[in-house]
Amino acid sequence: MTHEDEGHYGEKHPGAKLDPEIAKKLKEKISDGRISCGDAHAVAAALKVSPRTVGIAIDLLEVRIADCELGLFGSGVQQPEGELSAEAEKLLLQAVEAALVQGRLPCAAAWNIAKKLGIAKVAVKLACDRMSIKINRCQLGTFK
User: Fold this and answer.
1) How would you classify the pairing of strands 105-106 and 135-136?
2) Are 20 and 60 members of one domain?
3) In tens digits, what is the pLDDT along the chain, a chain of 144 residues?
4) How many domains does the chain divide into?
5) Whether residues 90 and 59 fall in one domain
6) Global pTM?
7) Which domain holds residue 108?
8) E strand or H helix at 29
């Protein structure tokens, strides 16, 4: 959803009910009407629920997700420290190409690539930028 949709995020989930346990954990992390992507994922892990379930709860609470782990939607994530070696860059580009679904890279795949290669998540996003590849399917449901 966009800035214009602010205050109406819950409308994406007609009939959905807010789980009180998830809501309580989220409210502990919310600041200034926002929750970071990392905090949202931490809540999902702590409660052993999917990030998508937490994302729905965030929408129902009408809270914005900030600080995307991949550096998307102006989150201010900085360039990763240091440069990748030529071999690491080659492996990264191959991994991105192998994980594409209909020409786009799912968010979960980007996270998995970063973990597998031991690099910052934002490095995967920057590689996608260089390759003109869009990242989609946010694990929290922020974008499709």
Assistant:
1) parallel
2) yes
3) 445 556 789 999 999 999 999 999 999 999 999 999 999 999 999 999 999 999 999 999 999 999 999 988 765 556 666 788 999 999 999 999 999 999 999 999 999 999 999 999 999 999 999 999 999 999 999 988
4) 2
5) no
6) 0.88
7) 86-136
8) helix 20-29
